[in-house]
DNA sequence: ATAATTTCTAAACCTAACTTTAGGTCAAGC
DNA sequence: GCTTGACCTAAAGTTAGGTTTAGAAATTAT
C-alpha cells in the first residue's frame, strides 16, 4: 500500500473520470506504459493522471490518438515530466488549436457570402478550398472537399 | 436526354465530387429523394447538386447526417428551393459555427494558464468545464470531461 | 478462511459514415 | 443485336475510439 507500489487501474479511472476499458485501450495504442506487479496487474505512477488528463484535453482539440502519441513521445521517459515539460507540449497544442480556429473563422467569413447568396456552386465557392478543416474530420475514407476539382 | 429526364447518379457524382456510393448512402439516411425512371434507375434534379454541396459544407461545420437531415427538412418540397431558402438555412448553420468558435477560443484562453503552468489537475482545471466542445465529439459512448467531478 | 471486489485477457460488439463486393439489370454506341 | 459501361440491391468490410462479455486469477475485506 506504500506509494511506491503505484496506483491500480481502477484508482486511475476514478481520478480521471475515464473508464477502465478506455485506459487499457490507450495502453494498447501506445499512449501509456504501466508496469506490472507480482500478480500481473497494472500499476501506474501518479504522473500518469496528468498524462491521461492531457490526452483528454488534446482530444478536445481534435487530435487523434496517434497524433497524441507522437506529442507525448517528446516527454522524457527517464524521469517524471516537469511542469516545464508540459508547458513545452502545451505550446505544440496551441499551434493545432490556432489552426482550427483560423479555419472556422474563415468558413464563417465565407458563409454569408456563399450560402447567403445561394451560389453554392462548386467551381467558384470559397468554402471549397482544400486547405480548410484539419484534414478529413470524420471516420473512414471519404472524398475530401476539393479533391476532385473536375467539376 | 431532355432536361426533364433528370441526372443519373454518376452525373451527380461527377458534379459534386462525391462517390456514387456516398450519394446512395445519403438517400438511405433520408437526405435526398430522387425519383426512378422506367428501368428503376435514380434520376436527380439539378437542385440536388446544391443540396449535396450543402451537405458537404454542413459536415465541415461538424453536423452529423441526422442533424443535416433536420436542417434540410425546412426546405420546401413542393418547389425548387430559392436562394432565399438557402440563406435562411445558412443562418441556422451560422449559429452552430459561432458556438464552435466560441468553444475553441475559450479553450485557447485557458491553454497557457492551465497546461502552461502544469497544473492539469482535474478538480481545478478550467479546461474541464462540461459545456466545452460541442457535445461528445468522437464516436461511441464515452465519459465526457466533467461528467465525473468526484475526483 | 472465505467472500466480495478488482483485475486480467481475448474476442466480440458498437456507432458513424462510408466503401467494397457479388451477382445481376439497364442503357447507349456501333 | 450485341457489347460495354453505368446502374441496381443486399450484405459485408473499414476506421476510430471505445464498451461489453466471459471466464479466470489476484486482492481486499470480514
From TrEMBL, chains A, B:
The keyword NAD does not apply. Residues 6-74 form the HTH merR-type domain. PROSITE patterns: HTH_MERR_1, HTH_MERR_2. InterPro entries: DNA-bd_dom_put_sf, MerR-type_HTH_dom, MerR_fam, Redox-sen_tscrpt-act_SoxR. The keyword RNA-binding does not apply. Keywords: 2Fe-2S, DNA-binding, Iron, Iron-sulfur, Metal-binding. NCBIfam families: SoxR. This is Redox-sensitive transcriptional activator SoxR. The gene is soxR.
Amino acid at each position: 500500500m506504500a506509494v511506491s507500489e503505484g496506483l491500480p487501474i481502477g484508482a486511475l479511472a476514478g481520478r480521471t473520470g475515464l473508464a477502465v476499458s478506455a485506459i487499457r485501450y490507450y495502453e494498447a495504442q501506445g499512449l501509456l506504459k504501466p508496469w506490472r506487479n507480482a500478480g500481473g496487474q497494472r500499476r501506474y505512477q501518479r504522473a500518469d493522471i496528468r498524462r491521461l488528463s492531457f490526452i483528454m484535453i488534446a482530444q478536445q482539440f481534435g487530435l487523434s490518438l496517434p497524433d497524441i502519441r507522437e506529442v507525448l513521445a517528446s516527454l522524457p521517459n527517464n524521469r517524471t515530466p516537469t511542469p516545464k515539460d508540459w508547458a513545452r507540449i502545451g505550446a505544440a497544442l496551441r499551434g493545432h488549436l490556432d489552426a482550427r480556429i483560423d479555419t472556422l473563422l474563415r468558413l464563417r467569413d465565407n458563409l454569408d457570402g456563399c450560402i447567403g447568396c445561394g451560389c453554392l456552386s462548386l467551381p467558384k465557392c470559397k468554402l471549397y478550398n482544400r486547405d480548410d478543416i484539419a484534414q478529413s474530420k470524420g471516420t473512414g475514407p471519404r472524398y475530401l472537399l476539393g479533391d476532385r476539382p473536375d467539376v
